[in-house]
């Protein structure tokens, strides 16, 4: 009588179970809509502040001011939206992380069905090349092995057997089961489906994604704090000035004009767009480093990283098994005998092929010596063979030349040998201790696997990428700890960690190397590092990495080997799957942060100068020295254009020689705020002095024009000094940022134009200047930049790099 294990389910039973359990599908997070991406561009407090300023300007009838601010908001949103939408589209690859179809036995016959229709109890038929459609327990296996790297992180194929394994065993050790989303490397088998959909191991990982948190980036938090500071400052100053004016019984219209001027002066209207553009520039630079950025703020976050948690296989290593060492008297003989006992086949390149990765490594190394399996098959065809068996741990082939070629686990092969075994066990132990997978190679003269001669041992491993060794060293010099989290065996993981320089002693090994890690382990490790206050970047390729990628401050997915689930959970995608690209991107991230910091300091110092000019004038009873439209011009054009050039500054040569900034460090520290205040007071003093002098001799309209031009020239020229807080302009290189030079020339031209073109002069309420007036304004404009450069030289003996 046929049993269900041999005949499978009936069609009726399968339909009933499908109704009960639902489709065999993994629930995926919906793709972000265009509206959601657009809405994310308006979440900053600074954006809200600018929107409020635009609304107040419109209410007061200042249409030009309102339109100008609204234009900035639209430009900022457009740049951010386009960049993030392009990235979302770029990573939309095939969503098929599971087998689209599966072979099963139903109603006593083999059938091919959509894998979504698999149900518990189905009998799966498996052979090399198949993608497993659901979690299942094996009832039959012949030389069966599966590639589970995407699920467990284990680089070698997992050999399967029928010997029962406890349900609570680590995933990588459940040799009696196959899992959804993995692929069959060798052999054949049959398995009864036990779990489908979200109840599979793959489904459990997908569920973990919902528990991982997407948080604000460090830059978003710091800019939000700056925005709140500016908001409170604006409100406090406006309320104070308005209250003082009312006590003096000043005209309401004049007080409102002064209040709007103060509000406009306090807010760097161009900042959101400048930060967005700075990040977009970082995206372009990182793309040149093979890093695709999916979420714009993550550009800077990577520069703040203090810990990089990385998978081993394919990221730190090549992802391909390679012969690292041969033990034996004759290397040619060892590899020749090994090649004669392989089923895998190389492609035309002879660098890889199809079949078991261990066999491919043997064939690649043999081909370097001129030994090719096709030649062996032609010269001495197979007579009989014993396929690899998980119980016997070996494979043998008897060829027409009368030689039996055997390869397998050393401890299973040595007892069958009568010659060549001296020192073999010691060599095996020593090689295994260094993380090598050791294959024994033997020959015999009969079909029986007895009385063999051990030819030699071959040590195989997935070798470190050559560039990863230098990248780990560069990360260490940059103060970044590299932490390996892998599903591989602990011995293998520790050996690779030592070779890469990730850990040099036992304490570092314990802290920085985590082997046999489950998805839950990875999530826990990320949370522990973040709880210490570290900024954590996490790389991964398998679905088992996806929850940790989502939890990390920045998740980095592999572009070549990465699954779609991993890419969707990430902030960045490595196009070349190379750890060295991460370190290069860290350099760009640090440069972007430094550029944003100096640009923000530059902008706020200008705003401080404007604010103090208007505030002091109102307190001492002078007419408003700068009108709202003039202040907007300064903020958006005079400050905005140089700021755009500043965020494009190339990275400093020693940017990776500095330690990471402290995770809790504000984007504007005490030194930066002191700089903002000092420069603001200096520019306000110069501007008010020129205004008061011109007010006494030429009246308020020409005095405002002088104040306007002096402040513009102060701001534009000061951009040269803002490029570095320590190095002078000639040390940085006056022509090393030609965009800034061009912007300064352009801004001077625009300022002259609005002073001489009648329509523009009327819009900005400027009086006509003669050459002497322009010369005075320009000379005063040189004062701040000159004093700042001289101060850098004066501080030099006791200067501390900040």
How would you characterize this protein structure?
By secondary structure, the chain is an alpha+beta fold. Helix content is 51%, strand content 16%. It contains 31 helices and 23 strands. Strands 1, 2, 3, 4, 5, 6 and 7 form a seven-stranded antiparallel beta sheet that branches. The chain starts with a helix and ends in a 7-residue tail after the last helix.
Number of helices: 31
What would the average pLDDT be, to the nearest integer? 84
Assess the beta-strand content as a share of residues: 15-25%
Shape: elongated
Helix content: 40-55%
User: Whole-number radius of gyration?
Assistant: 35 Å
Biggest sheet features: 7 strands, antiparallel
Q: Span from first to last CA?
A: 83 Å
Based on secondary structure, the structural category is alpha+beta
Query: pLDDT below 50 for ≥5 consecutive residues: which ranges?
Result: 90-99
Number of DSSP E strands: 23
Short descriptors:
802 residues; alpha+beta; seven-stranded mixed β-sheet
